[in-house]
Each structure stands twice: as structure tokens, then as C-alpha cells.
Amino acid sequence: MKFAIISKGDQKSEEIKEKVRQHLIEFDLLYDEEEPDLVLSVGGDGTFLEAFHRYQFRLEETAFLGLHTGHLGFYADWVPEEVEKLIIEIAKTPYEVVEYPLLDVMIRPKTGDEVHHFLALNECSVKTAEGSVVLDVTIKGEHFERFRGDGLCISTPSGSTAYNKALGGGIIHPSLPSIQITEMASINNRVFRTIGSPLILPDHHTCELHPINDKSFLITIDHITKNYSNVEVIECKVAKEKIRFARFRPFPFWKRVRDSFVSDDS
Ligand code: NAP
Fold first, then answer.
1. Does pTM surpass 0.90?
2. N or C end of the chain, less CB within 10 A?
3. Where does NAD(+) bind (predicted)?
């Protein structure tokens, strides 16, 4: 089996990376950063997002696994004290694959420019540095509302515990292939009106965001933000692709949620 390790880059993560790398090579596994079957992220959820984006071109062949060197991660669920156990598991045990849905984002320009296509593990957020975001929101081809406010966040189920949660969105179990739209400070008064509640869309519904003026938009895909001008439409839907996690032991989603946000009592 070929493996690669992405580290957060701090001393602790680098030491663990080197230890795991050496031991797995001794177990006759091949370290291959180009075409790994297994990618281990050592750091936090932010590091896991980087690992996902680095290897998203081969999602069908690669499984991901996270070891966290900070506080409990949503994607990184092994701790440094378990590193020897993890090395043996990787070297000796066939792993179970668990798949989670992803978000497909297409940014289409008004004229000529390149179409941008992304996959997000957590979310896509749309903001602007030029006053309020004003967009027509279309769902499955039907106009739904004209949004005015700070912006919108469109998240995956596994991203629902990240930015989406801070915006008052619901937590969605990753076995539900869906996306969630949450508002950022919408303007609501007698003239302007939005739904106000988070919307959860199934995998056969596409959400389109049509800017109604010529502002440029700060569009963030997970941890990467870029400024886009000349935007005709931003299309969001559940992706055909999925992320594959290597699971050596069960770690139920609701236990992660409880341990992260409610209590770490067993
Ligand atoms: P960051 O601002 O350095 O970290 C954001 C925090 O979100 C970190 O504590 C990170 O955990 C955590 N996180 C990431 N994915 C998560 C998930 N699926 N469930 C629960 N928590 C999660 O940014 P970053 O490390 O580059 O990560 C980018 C992510 O930050 C974005 O995808 C977005 O979801 C999140 N974000 C959150 C807010 C907010 O909550 N108000 C605002 C902006 C962005 P680790 O410490 O383990 O890395």
C-alpha cells in the first residue's frame, strides 16, 4: 500500500509525521506523495482540509485518515497517544471505507472568462467587500428569494458543524446526501424579505445564486478565499464525488458532535 502524510507543520505534528513515516516504511509500505492509497493528515481539521484539496483529483483511489495534534477534530479522530496503535492498524488491518458527501460549486462568468469548478468538504461561502451581497436565489430552476445581507454559506453535512453551525444552521448527519444554505445577517424589513431559516436541499436539487449587480465576490471554498468579478451565477449541488475515510474503528458522528460541543464525558 502507498501512503502519504500531510502535517500541520508545527514541531509536534512534524515529529509524529516522521515517526509514522519511518515505521510504516519498516512495515514495507511505500511512501508516495504522488499517488497514495492512504493519506494521513496530522494536525487539525484545517490540515485535513488541506489534505483533501491536495488529493481531491484522485478521490476514488485515496482514503483519508486524520490524527489531531490539537483539540478533538471532526475529521481527525486519532490522538498522539495512540500513534503506535495507529501504525500497527495501518500496517496490519484492512480498513473499512466510510463515504461522506461533498459540495459541487461552479462559478460561471458573464462573458468569456474561465468557468471555475470546485469540490468543498466543508462549505462555500459568498461575501463581498463592496457593501451588501445582493443575489437572486433559485432552487431547482425556480426563483426562491432575493437575498440581501452579509452573505450566504452553503455547506456539506460534515461541514455543518463548522461555519454553518456558527451561523445557526442545523447539524446534518453525513449519511444524508444534502447541502444546507445558511444566511449571514440578512436584511429583513417591510421592503426586503428572506426566509431566515436554514434550507436543506436533497441531492437532486441545485441551488443557483445570481448576482444582480456588478460587485465582485469573496468566495471561500473551505479554507481558500478568492475574489471573483464578472460573476453570472454560482451553482451549488451535492457532488457526484464523495470523500472516502479509512476507518479502523467506529467513531459515530453524534459522539463526535457530543464530544466537541457538549461534553467529553464517556
Ligand atoms: P480557521 O479559522 O483557522 O479554523 C476554523 C475552526 O473550524 C478550527 O477550529 C477548525 O478546527 C474548525 N473546523 C474546521 N472544519 C470543521 C468541521 N467540519 N467541524 C467542526 N469544526 C471544524 O480556519 P481553517 O483551519 O483554515 O478552516 C477553515 C474552516 O473554518 C472553514 O471551512 C469554515 O468551516 C471554518 N470557519 C468557521 C468560522 C466560524 O465558526 N465562525 C468562521 C470562518 C471559517 P481545527 O482547529 O481542528 O483545525
1. yes
2. C
3. 45-46, 122-123, 148, 150, 185
